[in-house]
Amino acid sequence: MGKLHVERLILGDMRTNCYLAVNEETKEALIIDPADNAEGITLKLKSLRAVPVAVLLTHGHFDHIGAAEELRKSFGIPVAAMEAEEEVLTDASKNLTGYFGTPYGIKADRYIRDKEQLSYAGFSIRALHTPGHTSGGACYYIPEEKVLFSGDTLFCESIGRTDFPTGSAAVLRQSVRGLLEELPEDVAVYPGHEMPTDIGHEKQYNPFA
Q1: Cβ(200)–Cβ(24) under 8 Å?
Q2: How far is CA 191 from the centre of its chain?
Q3: How far apart are CA 198 and CA 139, in angstroms?
Q4: CB of 205 within 8 A of CB of 155?
Q5: From CA 55, how far away is CA 138, in angstroms rounded?
Q6: What is the Cα–Cα distance from 59 to 45, expressed in whole angstroms?
Q7: Collapsing DSSP states into helix, strand and coil, what is residue 125?
């Protein structure tokens, strides 16, 4: 698939999918949703001979941000998230860190808006605001590679939970339907948990479509 190599790491008790999106030509990499194992992520980057250039967060829950601060400091790279997610990122009662350990928050270096175009690792990335799992949930779409990193918005034949702070079932269904209407069927989908899927499969089999 072009110059993009996607490496999937399953991290933490929540079995969160952290992705390394590596440009095979430049060996620059994006870290998407680093869970709780900065050392493991760093070792995998080394094994791929990849140099990270940014951390992209799909949302602010503890199991997706746990290693972000350590990776930011270790590599001197920015953390980016949707601007509507700032409250969740910084509030321990909303990012759930207070329920599963030591409460903490994180500030992004770059807050982005819906449909904003990002340029990292040689890729043009479209940030899509997909609220519902949280108020500032995001997906990251790389059109030239036909890849979507969907966080906890869209899963294989399912969608994310909506019973956490700032969640809304109605809003999430609307976000998912928007993705399935907008994106081509051959777009590969890499979700925040469980196995990858694709837009065509979800259009046919996702009960929330």
Answers
A1: no
A2: 8
A3: 14
A4: no
A5: 13
A6: 22
A7: strand
